[in-house]
Design brief:
By secondary structure, the protein is mainly α. It has two domains: 65 residues; 65 residues, Histidine-containing Protein, Chain: A (2-Layer Sandwich). The chain contains five helices and three strands, in the order ααααββαβ.
């Protein structure tokens, strides 16, 4: 039972409103556009060709979007793969590999004896368990210090035993070693 107006108010009940149908301008415009589009697609003379063309265009758009997405994924994957390889390479390179004594001596010779001022024939370089021994005779105390610093700068050198001496002075003895023949 539905009551309206003053009878409902007299009984303390609220009157229920019945909405009136309204025509909204946006709805009318949307309906007109949809109707025009359907008339365009279902035209008896050209509708079939228009539907076919629209279907082909839609499929081409989907294919293009798929190719773009696939390419973007490939680029991102290649970038990530390159970053990962670079990280692995950096981690491997930071761990210096242990050189054997002969290789270490050759490395020190090739790095230190590049300088043309150094008398190569008067200096002997050898290595034992990562310690490099410099033996021989050079012309100045500054050159002795310079050679020792250059050897210390070579990677994989643990320590340097500098036994170089000036002409006319006796050769120093290695630390902790006893004199042979005494």
């Amino acid at each position: 039972m539905e009551m309206r107006g003053s009878k409902a108010r007299a009984r303390g009940l609220r009157a229920r409103r019945i909405p009136k149908p309204r025509v909204d301008a946006r709805s009318a415009l949307g309906g007109a556009v949809a109707g025009g589009f359907l008339a365009y697609l279902f035209d008896p003379q050209r509708g079939r060709a228009r539907r076919h063309a629209a279907s082909e265009r839609s499929a081409a758009t989907v294919r293009r979007a798929g190719r773009r997405a696939t390419r973007a994924l490939r680029v991102k994957a290649a970038f990530a793969r390159g970053r990962m390889r670079g990280l692995v390479h950096r981690l491997r390179c930071t761990q210096a590999r242990e050189l054997d004594d002969a290789t270490l001596a050759h490395k020190v010779e090739s790095v230190v004896l590049r300088d043309p001022r150094i008398p190569k024939g008067q200096i002997s370089i050898n290595a034992e368990q990562g310690t490099v021994f410099l033996r021989g005779q050079v012309g100045s105390p500054e050159l002795i210090e310079e050679l020792e610093q250059a050897v210390r700068a070579v990677s994989s050198v643990r320590s340097v035993e500098n036994l170089l001496h000036l002409p006319g002075t006796p050769a120093p003895h290695p630390r902790g070693g006893a004199l042979l023949g005494r």
